[in-house]
Amino acid sequence: IEDLLSSDTCVCRMDGGCLVEGLRKASLEMVVPWGDSDRVVVVLGEHVGKLGQILQQEPERGWALVQLGQDAAPQVLLLPYNFICHYLGAGED
């Protein structure tokens, strides 16, 4: 996912490098990275569109501890895997 256009549509970069715009959430499969410290984007819930970093995971329970933001007071949230997706795009402005 390169960019979120709305709460239901996004722009995705395919493996070959081309961009596909206007994809609906229902047509996507969310991928959660395996390693801690990987970057994610929130795709469901009140924090949709925010970027974060995985601090800890518990795959058996299907959740990750995610730090949102990089400011002086970042938020740390326990989020279900279906609320996050691996993020490979550019950093926050």
Automatic annotation (TrEMBL):
GO terms for cellular component: spliceosomal complex. Its main location: nucleus. The keyword Nucleus applies. It is found in: Nucleus. The keyword ATP-binding does not apply. It comes from the Eukaryota. RNA-binding protein involved in pre-mRNA splicing. PANTHER family: G PATCH AND KOW-CONTAINING, G-PATCH DOMAIN AND KOW MOTIFS-CONTAINING PROTEIN. This is G-patch domain and KOW motifs-containing protein. It comes from Menura novaehollandiae (superb lyrebird).
